[in-house]
Design goal:
about 575 residues; mainly beta; Glucose Permease (Domain IIA); Immunoglobulin-like; seven-stranded antiparallel sheet; five-stranded mixed sheet; about 10% helix; about 30% strand; elongated
Length: about 575
């Protein structure tokens, strides 16, 4: 987001509203958290231990020091203004990612520490994406899951730990998720504040309601708070009762939706991540700003604002890399992070990266099935007899800095990606380094029951003619053999008698294709016995299911026909 330090005031953070715990949103335990050894002021080093973020409990050393008399409020305020780095080191909690770890795809853009027209990330690594004046950190999420509900959604979570008194203190909703929003627009966003001494609940105990409560909360000094602003959220999902469900209408919600400030738990889901505001449509992400002082949370030689990382798990975050010129993700397929591809017998692909591509590894199959690391290399198992074509060219980013774009192109074999769905791929460079994951969405499916007829569809109990089920299947791969099943009201039917049977599927049989090129066409007839056999048949809908077997899998399709017995 350009110049993200611009302030956008919430239209729903009415100061007279009393806080209450946000209902229906559960704290989320994020898996596979990194383990880090930490200690704060007021916590003896002997008590520091190697723990996961989920197990880390913030003891609020500032409150302890104030209550014990180790420091006065005047001294705390003086330290905050005279030496903010030391104040933060002593008293701020550690944070983690503001997005769910399983959906984190790396840093989209870093904080710019340059004081000129050039750019400078916290550690000086020129390959890290950052643009001039960027005053926050962008956390990239799984772009293929934008707008999805349930466990597939991209969720914003409270990055503060257990023990931290954290409240949502401002929300803004009602901005459409659409590209080309005004430069600098925050889109839908919220404010999170962790109180290090006095909290809004303390104010509520002294002043239950009215202007006095508002004034008490407003008077809590800035030196006793740590705040974040999180931008580009999905419209209609910001602090609604169930952020995992379908969003509300994309319009500013009434203030009755939630009362502010609202206490939230560590890792609690707060909204879904979208691309509202000046977020671009190259990938969904949330922009995080930490205040006071708009601080970059990463520790590095060029980040002179902090002496210790704000992250509980910076080393883990740094290992997830999606570097690219101009801030784009590292790796694309057919010019996109998620190309839509209609399945054919052979497809053409072009993979591009900022590093030379040595391998292309499948990482995920349709249905979210993960693939063991480095087991299926598309360059060696999926290309046609023609060798892959490798190339490179020089491009320029938004700051007119040159970078090299590497690519490899090839046509696939007939049996690559034979199922429709989302396939994840990563590139490995000549140093053994893996890229971000890009996805191919294969549509159309490899196998389709294209036609199904019943002739005749009306018969008499005294009719002596045969009845034929005829179906035609089309496939982009040659099918080696088939099975069929006939059901009525969930019961399997024997086509020879019309009575129910426990043997649902027929034996496998081999059919000849009526076409020599893809899509291949197969015709299959099932003949019903005439006359006396009809006594077991009933008028109604019959479902015909067909299985087709290919060297790389088995697929099925089904259609329904109506049989009328006079």
């Amino acid at each position: 987001m350009s110049r993200s330090s611009q302030s956008t005031k919430s239209n729903r953070s009415s100061p007279h509203l009393f806080m209450r715990t946000f209902p229906g949103v559960l704290a989320l335990a994020i898996s596979a958290a990194a383990a880090v050894t930490i200690a704060h002021a007021g916590e003896s080093p002997q008590k520091a231990s190697t723990v996961r973020f989920e197990d880390y409990h913030f003891s609020n050393p500032l409150r302890q020091d104030l209550q014990s008399g180790a420091i006065t409020e005047a001294q705390a305020s003086s330290l905050f203004y005279s030496n903010p780095k030391e104040f933060a080191r002593r008293y701020y909690p550690k944070i983690t990612l503001p997005v769910e770890r399983k959906k984190f795809r790396g840093i989209w853009r870093y904080y710019d520490h340059s004081h000129s027209s050039s750019t400078l990330p916290y550690d000086g690594d020129a390959s890290k994406p950052v643009y001039d004046g960027h005053s926050g950190t962008d956390f990239w999420t799984s772009f293929i899951d934008f707008g999805k509900t349930g466990e597939s959604g991209n969720y914003l979570v409270n990055p503060f730990p257990k023990g931290a008194d954290t409240f949502v203190t401002g929300i803004y909703d009602g901005v459409e998720d659409a590209p080309n929003q005004p430069v600098g627009s925050a889109g839908n966003h919220l404010y999170l504040t962790t109180y290090l001494n006095k909290t809004p609940e303390d104010c509520a105990r002294a002043f239950p309601s009215g202007p006095a409560l508002k004034q008490c909360i407003d008077d809590i000094p800035s030196w006793s708070k740590m705040s974040t602003r999180l931008l580009h959220l999905e419209c209609g999902t910001v602090m609604i009762n169930d952020v995992t469900g379908y969003p509300d209408n994309c319009a500013p919600a009434p203030s009755s939706r939630i009362q502010l400030p609202a206490r939230v738990g560590s890792l609690q889901r707060l909204a879904r991540i979208g691309y509202s505001g000046d977020a671009g449509l190259r990938g969904t992400h949330t922009h995080m700003e930490i205040s006071p002082h708009l601080v970059d949370p990463f520790k590095g030689r060029y980040n002179t604002d902090i002496s210790d990382s704000y992250f509980f798990d910076q080393s883990w975050v740094e290992r997830i890399e999606n570097f690219a010129g101009g801030g784009d993700p590292h790796f694309r397929i057919n010019g996109s992070f998620f190309p839509q591809v209609t399945y054919q017998a052979s497809n053409s692909y072009k993979f591009t990266s900022l590093s030379p591509i040595q391998r292309l590894w499948l990482t995920e199959k349709p249905g979210g099935v993960s693939v063991p690391s480095k087991t299926v290399d598309l360059l060696t198992t999926a290309v046609t007899t023609s060798a892959p074509e490798f190339s490179s060219r020089v491009e320029y980013d938004n700051d007119y800095r040159p970078y090299t774009l590497y690519s490899v192109s090839f046509k696939t074999k007939d049996n690559l990606l034979p199922q429709s769905g989302e396939w994840g791929v990563v590139a490995e460079d000549n140093r053994g380094k893996l890229s971000n994951t890009a996805f191919i969405n294969v549509t159309g499916g490899a196998f389709k029951l294209s036609q199904l007829t019943l002739s005749p569809s009306r018969v008499s109990k005294n009719d002596s003619s045969n009845v034929m089920f005829r179906w035609n299947a089309k496939s982009y791969d040659k099918i080696s053999r088939f099975q069929r099943k006939i059901t009525r009201n969930g019961q399997c039917i024997n086509p020879a008698t019309g009575s129910s049977t426990s043997q649902c599927w027929s034996d496998w049989n081999v059919l000849a294709t009526s076409s020599s090129n893809a899509p291949y066409s197969y015709t299959y007839n099932v003949e019903l016995a005439p006359s006396s056999a009809y006594r077991n048949w009933q008028t109604g809908n019959y479902v015909i299911s067909i299985k087709g077997e290919h060297a790389t899998g088995v697929w099925s399709d089904e259609k329904t026909v109506n049989f009328y017995l006079q």
